[in-house]
Amino acid sequence: MTNALRILILEDDAIIGMHLAELLAAMGHEICAIEITEADAVAAARHHRPDLMIVDARLQVGSGISAVESICRHRYVPHVFITGDIVGVRATVPAAIVLEKPFRESLLARAIQQAVSATATR
Length: 122
Prior knowledge:
single chain; Rossmann fold; five-stranded parallel beta sheet; 5 strands; 19% strand; globular
């Protein structure tokens, strides 16, 4: 089990964002923010300094992929993409940790552990 993490969620669908927040909180994590646009995601990451980001590839304004690139230029933050467009994410970020919507909680827990473990070896 991963230790409790402060997680920033980047998700354009409010219902999915709330579902992810509830699921992650039930797993013992703290949600520092749920953002729906690229600009708000970048600002939230600077403000909250999350341990991990859960990211949808498409946001209401901008891209989750671009948000991650901007955030990680300043400070690397491990991240997991949860999207309906795995092919699109992998085409842009080949080494990305990606889950396809819908997903199982066990796969999310494994992906989080993988993202956090990969950071430890950076």
